[in-house]
Design a protein that fits this description.
Blueprint lengths: L1 E3 L12 E3 L2 E3 L6 H13 L4 E2 L7 H4 L4 H16 L24 H7 L12 H20 L4 E4 L21 H11 L5 E5 L6 H7 L5 E8 L24 E6 L5 H18 L3 E6 L16 H12 L5 E5 L5 H17 L1
Parallel strand pairs: 1-4, 1-5, 5-10, 6-7, 6-9, 7-8, 9-10
Antiparallel strand pairs: 2-3
Helix pairs in contact: 1-10, 5-6, 8-9, 9-10
Length: 342
């Protein structure tokens, strides 16, 4: 299995995030990708390649031009204002406020974000842009006939909607890759999100569409981030009704409970008749993850990979979350090895 990766991810290294009422060091840090890359090489699962540059056009198929222009230029504007430290939002257009786009940088940042967990630094745009190119390069590998590929993306993407960043995510790598498959002639794409946190951005992007089936297994949003999306009764709207499936699970869920949800999701994907599968590969379901509450162990990720392989679909794995840094490489690569060895 080929892996695509870019050193540009090091350009994004937020100093802090707002969590539990405090500014704390970011859990999403460069060492995450470094450990996964080291494990890929150690296990010799395949060559590691640098991404090609497909430009902005495939990214603009998912993200609005206004959002991309804001994101790309935000750091320079912050520096022109004499800003120090990371750029973080502090005001959001809540339910009682108008959804206006102000002229002010901070007002726009609040408009284009949903939490305080996506700091913008000097290199954030380039890191996110390169991560999208990593996803597109791995997608192109499958479009050219490969059965599988791994996009080692950082920063992650599944919380980013068409014009909203948050949850460590800026550009939705999985959605960008899924759209690329469609633009190249595929008719039905499935996205399976196995991250501990619901992929709210991915759901929002495809919620009214039938050409992408979205299935997500995650912590119950009644108790877990992102709180405001990911409930079981969210089944899609309009043309997308019946193509969105959420499997929220209680805190403390172990492999047996999680695997039962995986089985249901895989059955939905098979019934849909997907031509290709995109996996949002988060391994923050691990029992020792510092910000998650499931109890999967490292061998469980081998079984996860085997079950995904049983679908028999060309499969693109795109890296999302996982914050137990010492174990992230083992767990992510276990999924790939389980898939390849099935």
């Amino acid at each position: 299995m080929l892996t695509y990766y870019s050193d540009d991810h090091h350009l994004h290294h937020g100093k802090c995030e707002l969590i539990d009422g405090q500014l704390m060091p970011c859990f999403e840090k460069p060492q995450r990708a470094d450990h996964i890359l080291a494990r890929v090489k150690q296990r010799q699962i395949g060559d590691v390649r640098a991404p090609k540059d497909f430009g902005l056009a495939p990214i603009e198929r998912i993200h609005s031009k206004a959002y991309l222009e804001f994101f790309e230029g935000a750091w320079a504007r912050w520096q022109e204002q004499g800003g120090k430290g990371d750029l973080l939002p502090f005001t959001w257009p809540a339910r009682t406020l108008r959804r206006m786009i102000p002229n002010d940088l901070h007002g726009q940042l609040g408009y284009y974000s949903f939490d305080g967990g996506a700091p913008i630094t000097a290199g954030t745009w380039q890191a996110a842009y390169s991560a999208a190119q990593v996803a597109l390069s791995a997608q192109q590998e499958i479009a050219n006939g490969a059965h599988s590929a791994f996009a080692l993306c950082r920063p992650p993407g599944h919380h980013a909607a068409g014009d909203v960043m948050g949850g460590y995510c800026y550009l939705n790598n999985a959605a960008i890759a899924a759209q690329a498959f469609l633009d190249q002639g595929r008719k039905k794409v499935a996205i399976l999100d196995v991250d501990y946190h619901h992929g709210n951005g991915t759901q929002d992007i495809f919620y009214q569409r039938s050409d992408v089936l979205f299935a997500s297994i995650h912590g119950d949003p009644a108790e877990e981030f992102p709180f405001f999306l990911g409930y079981a009764d969210e089944l899609g709207e309009g043309a997308g009704e019946g193509y969105n499936f959420n499997y929220p699970l209680p805190m403390g869920s172990s492999w047996d409970t999680w695997n039962a949800a995986l089985e249901q999701a895989c059955q939905r994907i098979a019934e849909y008749g997907a031509e290709v599968l995109v996996v949002s590969l988060g391994v923050d379901t691990y029992m020792e993850d510092p910000i998650s509450q499931f109890k999967l162990d490292s061998p469980d990720y081998l079984a996860m990979g085997r079950r995904i392989a049983a679908l028999g679909l060309p499969t693109l794995f795109i890296m999302e979350g996982g914050y137990a840094v010492e174990a992230i490489g083992v767990n992510a690569v276990n999924v790939l090895e389980g898939f390849e060895g099935a």
